[in-house]
Structure formats: C-alpha cells, structure tokens
Amino acid sequence: MNLAGRSVRFRLSRPGREALKNIVPDSEYVDGLVVDENHMGVWVSLAELEPATGVVLFKWDHFSTAILEYEPEVPVERSPAGFRP
Amino acid sequence: MTDSDFQVNVPSGFSNPDRQNLSDEERAVARGIAGSEEEFRRNKLEFLAAEDRRRQRGQDLGKQVQAVLAELGADYRLVSVTWNGNTLSWTLEVSTPQASHNVVLPWTLVDDVLDARTRGEFQRLRNMVLFGLGRRELIFERHR
C-alpha cells in the first residue's frame, strides 16, 4: 500500500520518540499526513509543524505501527480490453 | 489541448508532429538506426498515441483537481497541468489569491486515483493538493 496522501496515526518506537522529541509532541501516537515515502522512511506533514508546508522525516525504525482508516471500495467498472467479435 | 479552461502540457518527443510524412531529419534517422522508414513511422505512431493517452490523463486529472479547488472558492483556479518526463510526475499550476503555486504529484498517486476512482483515492488527491497549496488546516480539521 502506498501511503502518500493518506492520513496516518503512527505509534512511535522508543528510538523514534527520542529522535523526534523536540519536533513532535511527546506522545506514543502521532497523527500526520504522509506526503512522500522512500527508502529512508516517510515524509510527514503534522498539524502542529510550522511552516504549513514543512514536513518531517519519520525513519522506518522511528515507528512500530502505522494505523489508517481503510474502507473497502469497488473500483469503477471498466470495459474489457480487446477486440469485439 | 481541448476546450477546458486549463492547459494540458505533454511535451512531445518529436519536433515534427506530422503522423504520415517524415521530415528529412527523421528519414536520416530511420536509415541510420531504425532499419526502415516504415518501421520508424510505425514506432512514431505508437509513441504519439501514447502521448495522446497521457494528454487525456492530464485532462482527467485537471478536472478532478478543479473539483478540489471549487471547495476553496473562485479565487483558486487551475491554470495548467504539465507532465514531467524526467521525474515521472505531474505539475499543477494553481492561481491563488496570494500567488501562483506549483503542486507536484507523483505518477503513482495520479494513476492510483484515476484508475480506481474510489472515494478513498480521491481523498488522497485532495489531501495532496491542499497540502501543496499550504491549506493544511483543511486536511486535519476533520480529525479534531
């Protein structure tokens, strides 16, 4: 699952809480919007971070769990590929 | 381009847009690399058809973005949608009351949204557009 564009609740790991203690509220859970992800981790926009367009990197080992709302939905029906007989 | 009120820019890989008649330069390339003029013309047609499909995708993306901007009011207007072949991303140029903003979206996200067309995927597009425009408060407000 690609997280970019999704609102996610992160459960920070012990190293994550230590690394991010001056940046995010000292809490086990942090909510944010993932704007990008790469081999280092996820780049997150937080409600309390300034400026509004600023993002912070959560390295992969900074969190143990990512929780997000997921509603199963049926994609729109598409015409089958190929030729008509 | 179509009759919509924003531009869709997909730079072409060919300087000669003629789909039937090759230019002298293209003939020279065809003789040197492609094997035959017919093979070059066939490959060019396939390439140009792919560019047409990408323009349609840009048009579709622009309409979805306009729906997001409608929430923000008439002062927010989509000016152009541009494909960046080097970074495989789309750039949206949006006119706002403060200034003109560029919002860059990776092709993976755009394809997810336009292929699935589900509410959840459209929400991802909305979030990324609002974030790119500095309207973060509209993303987080429903969680408060």
* Largest binding interface between chains: A-B, 20 and 24 residues
Radius of gyration of chain B: 19 Å
First and last CA, distance of chain A? 38 Å
Q: In terms of structural class, how would the helical and strand content of chain B be classed?
A: alpha+beta
Largest sheet of chain B: 4 strands, mixed
Give a count of the beta strands of chain B, DSSP E runs of length 2 or more: 4
SSE sequence of chain A, one letter per element: EHEEEE
**Can you count the beta strands of chain A?**
5
Strand order of the largest sheet of chain B: 1-2-3-4
Helix content, binned percent of chain B: 40-55%
The overall average pLDDT of chain A, rounded, is: 88
In percent, how helical is the residue content of chain A?
A: under 10%
The largest β sheet of chain A comes out as: 5 strands, antiparallel
Any low-confidence stretches of chain A, pLDDT <50, length ≥5?
none
- Which series of helices and strands of chain B comes N to C? EHHEEEHHH
Spatial order of strands in the largest sheet of chain A: 4-3-2-1-5
Shape summary of chain B: elongated
Mean pLDDT of chain B: 90
- Report the portion of residues of chain B in β strands: 15-25%
Overall 3D form of chain A = elongated
